[in-house]
Amino acid sequence: MDDSRETFVNHAFVTGCPVRHSRSPLIHGYWLKTFGIPGSYVAHEVTPEEFPGFMTALKEGTARFCGGNVTIPHKEAAFRLADRPDERAAELGAANTLWLQEGSICATNTDGLGFVANLDERAGGWDRTASAVILGAGGASRAVIQAVRDRGVKTIHVVNRTETRARELADRFGAAVHAQPMVALSEVMAGAGLFVNTTSLGMDGEPAPEIDFSPMAADAVVTDIVYVPLKTPLLRQAEAQGFRIVDGLGMLLHQAVPGFEKWFGRRPAVDEKLRQIIIDDMDAHA
């Protein structure tokens, strides 16, 4: 095989450690087939020790990929090692999407775009609220905070067991973001139009605390970035209390769109057939 660009122009990856559980190959494989594009999207496991070398190989072309996705634990390293991270990735300090351009590795983070696109599709008008509550201050919360702020929500309360971690996010994302301890949860939920769980509470059958969503606005939306199970304990609680709910699967699907467009030159659609393919895979591995 020669070293021409044609040998890898239509080949992309998802890398992490571990990465075998990733459903991204199913998503991108579906779109490649839909468009009839010859190419591939594969899971490529890389350890943290190997990751700098992988980035070098990507830039030099020896990895034979035109770009790809980055997941845990490489997102921060991907940002640091990229040649041209955009403003979104720079504020987050993390990248999940890479592509080659003029001999440089470009980087962005599409997690927040996926989050708001999912809400737009499943709960239109969610962004008309003036106040949102985000539970959790881990790495997963950053893109959500950024995206909600950028959609114009004026007051964002980040509630976390360790208030100092929430305060770090408030310092990072500006005056709209307020750090709160867990004891303030009910108080800050009063009148809020959006509640987001960014923690692992309720994931894979883990228990979740009982939450009273009644202080929120009557038309509030409750969403969870966890999508296994599809309807988490927190979503079940909110639904039982009469609130609109949005599961986290759409975030996974929508965050994949910009990358596919960068690598393969076509903008794909998130449709119900794709959603069902992922749900069927989740059921098969339950």
How would you sum up this structure, described in words?
The protein is 39% helix and 18% strand. The chain is α/β, with parallel strands linked by helices and 286 residues long. Helix 5 (111-122) packs across helix 6 (139-150). The chain has helices at 24-35, 51-60, 75-81, 87-92, 111-122, 139-150, 163-173, 185-189, 233-240, 249-255, 257-264, 272-284; strands at 11-15, 40-43, 67-70, 84-85, 97-101, 104-108, 131-135, 155-160, 177-181, 194-197, 221-224, 244-246.
Which labels suit this protein?
six-stranded mixed beta sheet; 18% strand; alpha/beta; 286 residues; six-stranded parallel beta sheet; 39% helix; disordered N terminus
What integer is the average pLDDT?
94
Strand arrangement across the biggest beta sheet: 2-1-3-5-6-4
Give the N-terminus to C-terminus distance in angstroms: 41 Å
What structural class results from the helix and strand content? alpha/beta
Describe the largest sheet.
6 strands, mixed
Portion of residues in helices?
A: 25-40%
What is the number of beta strands? 12
Q: Which parts are unreliable, with pLDDT below 50 for 5 consecutive residues or more? A: 1-6
Q: What is the ordering of alpha helices and beta strands?
A: EHEHEHEHEEHEHEHEHEEHEHHH
Rg, Å, rounded:
19 Å
Number of helices, counting only DSSP H or I runs of 4 residues or more: 12
Query: What does the overall shape look like?
Result: globular
What percentage of amino acids are in beta strands?
Answer: 15-25%
